[in-house]
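Researcher: Next sequence.
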Amino acid sequence: MGKSIYSYDYYRIVPAGVDAEYDGIEPWYGTDAHNAKLPNNTKATVTIEATLPYGDGVGTNQKHSWSFPITIDNEEPHASNLKVTEAEGRYYLSLDVSDNQYVAAVVFYNIKNSEMLYGMQGFGEDKPGVTSHIKEYDITGFGETFGMIVHDYAGNSKMYTVTAKGNPDDYGTITPTNMLWTETFDNDWLPADWSIQSKGASVNTWYRDVEYTATVDADDDNQQDEWLISRTTDISGVDTEVHMVFDFYTTYWYTVEYKRCNLQVMASGDGGENWQEIWNLQKDAGAFSPPGLPRRPRSPSPKVPELRRPALRLCLHR
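Model: Next structure:
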């Protein structure tokens, strides 16, 4: 006895049975009592007062307001000393970033389609106005020209264009001149002349899910070695580059960040006797847009090696 039972929704918590209207907090736009904008770097204290929407409104409150300090910041952050280097086929960007208060993050994006590229450098500066250095951030696959945005914690940002001569573009649009074959998994499972091999201890192997996607579920208890092998294709008469373009869904943190599992694309020129890796999720995943979302579709297009034989097979290996 003596308990109060409360009900709640997204905006409020009230005693059960109370029918109370909710009024939102009016925004404050960084102005003084005369509605004039406060100068940049002005320190102020924001106080929010509230009253209960039932009873006498104030008398039963132990506290009906709270205050916190803020600093007005309408100044853009800056990047300087941008330097691109290359080592063993990988490209790296080093730079300095600064703000009158605190830099929040640097993110990268594809200039052609405005999609965000995988990777975000966050900051935890403990003093305002300092310069932070980013050393050799891996930008391999972002292309020879891409965009960069520096953000601060006040919502200010500044955009830059980065040039990295020779850097490959893993997310450029490929326009095929000759489509050898397409498989959407919409019809049969398995498709004709495709096969599955399970070489590990797990019972979780490839299947088609309700979205008609070739899927293999993770197994936290057993080692997985699951192969989904395509039909054989004769490319002996193809004189142009051959690419495999595919969409995939994955969990970024589980696969790329913590490396709990992997997905490889393999190619064989002898019908499946010998395989070579042409794409690796952990190494080549590249863009996730926005970065860190749990599941994102991507369309890589790894180049098939110069296997000018009549028995090309491709494989998705988990």
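Model: The longest strand covers residues 78-87. The two ends are 57 Å apart (CA to CA).
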